[in-house]
Amino acid sequence: MSQMAKTIDPASQLMIECAACEGIGLTWDRLEAMQPQCGFGKLGVCCTTCQMGPCRIDPFGTGPSEGVCGATAQTIVARNLARKIAAGCAAHSDHGRTVAEALLLAAENPDSGYKIKDEKKLRVVAEEFGLAVDGKSVEAIAKAVAEACLGEFGKLHGELVMAQRAPEPRKALWRQLGIMPGAIDREVVRLLHQTNMGVDADPTNLLLSGMRCALADGWGGSMMATDLQDILFGSPKPIRTKTNLGVLKAPKVNVIVHGHEPVLSDMLVEASRDPEILAAAAAVGADGIQLAGICCTGNEILMRRGVPSAGSFLHQELALLTGAVEAMIVDVQCCMPGLPRLADHYHTQIITTSPKAKMPGVRHMQFDENRAYEVAKEILLAAIEAFPKREAARVNIPKEEVDLVAGFTAEYVRTLLGGRFRPSYRPLNDAIISGRIRGVAGVVGCENPHLTQGKSHVDMMKELIRNDVLVVSSGCSALAAAREGLLTPEAARIHAGRGLAEVCEAVGMPPILHVGACVDNSRILIACCEMLKEGGLGNDISDLPAAGAAPEWMSEKAITIGFYVVASGIYTIFGEPQPMMGSPEVRDLMCREFEEIVGGRYDFEADAIKAAHMMIEHMDRKRAALKLQPMMYEAAPKELALASA
Ligand code: SF4
Ligand code: MSK
């Protein structure tokens, strides 16, 4: 595979070339060595649930059609998918729990280093939970909110409080289908029970339970993570910063934070400005500390603090190849276990920090929220110690660093569009109703070495905005768009259709709104609710001219996200198929029957331009059903968009 086939990012191409020269293996090399990958696993027809197996069903009908226990392809496929949903929900929701614990700490221990930064949002959430706020101190309210949120994981009775934010018809449907989520932990446990050997064999029942568990993530754990992070670290507002490997600076101590939970990364931002740390950096001859993010913990501090992002998922190895990274601090999720072996070629220290995520032979500096600031300083001092060991001759930092604007929340969009004195979704709804904007697409998710890094994200988003679709993006997808310069207000004039460009230029916003990390997909759900509340676009999320996509997904969390988005009523396209093609019944269920059941459904399409047009056609059908006005303008000519790019 050529460098160009691996990634569209010139900085990544340079680093991949550099790895080849140095004989260092990367994820793409491991993928090649893995060929041919197991077809049974890809199709979802391999079952390892019990020790009578492993069993695999022959998709061509010439081998076994049942496992040893008699499970057919449809049972095995649905059961495997359901287990992945449970795993994704567990990951996001445990993240939410960590933030709730940090909020409790901030309320109880003024020396913890955590402070409540968004008191207004704290009060809104407190009221939503039915907690008394009048006459109470901020700390008392924060304590009550944190305890109420922690209670959501194991409460004995009732529905999730945040799920009550969904529109009434949606909630009624969830209740009727028996998929309104209750306690978050219970949903994960129930699904793992249901998928044990000899429990549920019915694919529809399995995947409806999968939806219930996924909803406990999207309208529970993830939503909680987003809201409590806003309360604790501040609600993001549009902020200009930079991305790509060029944000690393040779004269500085470069520290990369990688993973997902800002309880650590936000504290590292604070500690990196501490005079003691700056003096220690100067003492080893460095010109300060350069903090940069990778993946979603990077997105968290990018959105709130303007800390530049070194890159997305597939940049994690490439960043080390610059030879200029003193430490990569990892917390949880998406951190490749191969990192330490790559770091061994350099002076770089990989430092694990979570008791849930250690790596053999790797320095572990356990993050303790009770003394968060102190631990953050200790970690930075460890990075500074590595600076003198750097080999100057091997430093090779690509020049690419691109401007972007990030930090768009569902709340901020009101102010952005309606103005400070009349914040409202009305201008957005009016733009959609009048045909200036076609609809809204959420393009999210990971990167996957099976595909050219960033290409599907960028192709899809360019095609959507060219056709007057407002795009909201998160996670690694948003970073792919940022590297192409698509997250700037100027990008609207160059790439967007005339209607979308007019709206963007009127308020100075990019045609693609970066809404945060992967847990922040919950912001997209809230934005959908706001559009419905504003009126004129139907009564339920499934009425909206909206669609979702994860063109380069790879994580179990993406499967969970897909299921809660579909269960919320949104048409959703994944690039590679989820592991379910081995059962025509499950494929039909997900790609057709789901629409009749929940109003949303899946499609799987690897061609990003084709997928964008499937989303556009879906929006046009929804527009017709709502009797909205015809689109005002033709799509921007492709040539113009390309020529100006
Ligand atoms: Fe095989 Fe059934 Fe056991 Fe799965 S649960 S491994 S299909 S015997
Ligand atoms: S980091 S889950 S690769 S978006 Fe959230 Fe990126 Fe996907 Fe990890």
Question: Globular, elongated, flat, extended or rod-shaped: what is the shape?
Answer: globular
Strand content: 5-15%
Poorly predicted runs: none
Q: From the alpha-carbon coordinates, what is the Rg to the nearest angstrom?
A: 24 Å
Q: What CATH architecture label of the largest domain applies? A: 3-Layer(aba) Sandwich
Q: Going across the major beta sheet, what is the strand order?
A: 6-5-4-7-8-9
Please explain how this structure is put together:
There is one protein chain. With 645 residues, this protein is α/β, with parallel strands linked by helices. The chain folds into four domains: 3-56, no CATH class; 73-233, Substrate Binding Domain Of Dnak, Chain:A, Domain 2, CATH 1.20.1270; 245-394, 3-Layer(aba) Sandwich (Rossmann fold), CATH 3.40.50; 408-642, Rossmann fold, CATH 3.40.50.2030. Helices cover 50% and strands 11% of the residues. Strands 6-5-4-7-8-9 form a six-stranded parallel β-sheet. Strands 13-12-11-14-15-16 form a six-stranded parallel β-sheet, sandwiched between helices. A two-stranded antiparallel sheet has the order 1-2. Helix 6 crosses helix 7 (138-154) and helix 11 crosses helix 13. The chain is globular, with a radius of gyration of 24 Å. The protein starts with a helix and ends with a helix.
